[in-house]
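We modelled the chain as a single entity of 202 amino acids. Its sequence is:
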Amino acid sequence: MIDVDREGDVWTVTLNRPDKANALTAEMLGQLVETMRAAQEARAVILTGKGKIFSAGADLEAARAGLATSPLWEDLSGAIAGLPGLTVAALNGTLAGGAFGMALACDLRIAPPHATFFYPVMQLGFLPQPSDPGRMAALIGPARTRLLLMGAQKIDAETALSFGLIDRIVPADRIAAEAVDLVQATVAAPRDVATGIKELCH
């Protein structure tokens, strides 16, 4: 349910459970953590999904069994944030719930016009993963973060772009190609220069 394609120095990691809106199980989270920890030598990592939804967050049955509060979510976002290469969340559609963490940890985020964004953790009776509110606030500001997390607002792609939650709106059939285009300059640059610029941007 997690596909990994290694094209030279570019790794594309795909959530492949479209019949379940790419909802994440503990097994999938574990595979994602292992993959991201193994990607230290990759010059770029592209994270995407199959179908029209990037991810609905935690699988409902797994969430009820405790996955919603699993440390695996934080392990995953930390592993992505710690990668030295350029990371791109090529969101093929809606981003919801716990799946926010992996997208927020990426360096860049692109999405199609039909994507929506919502994080209903409060309504479900859980706290968000520890790093998510801080990363979100760094992108869109504290008030807009409260709008999503406490106001329970669902926003569309245009609003997400205006907030700074995503960096570009791309036609759905161009998401994969756009992500590859975005990483080409980094892949072509000397590794130490690209890594150094990423560190300076933080």
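As a brief sanity check on the tokenised model: The beta strands are 2-7, 10-15, 44-49, 53-55, 86-90, 94-96, 108-111, 116-118, 155-156, 168-169. The chain has a mean pLDDT of 95.
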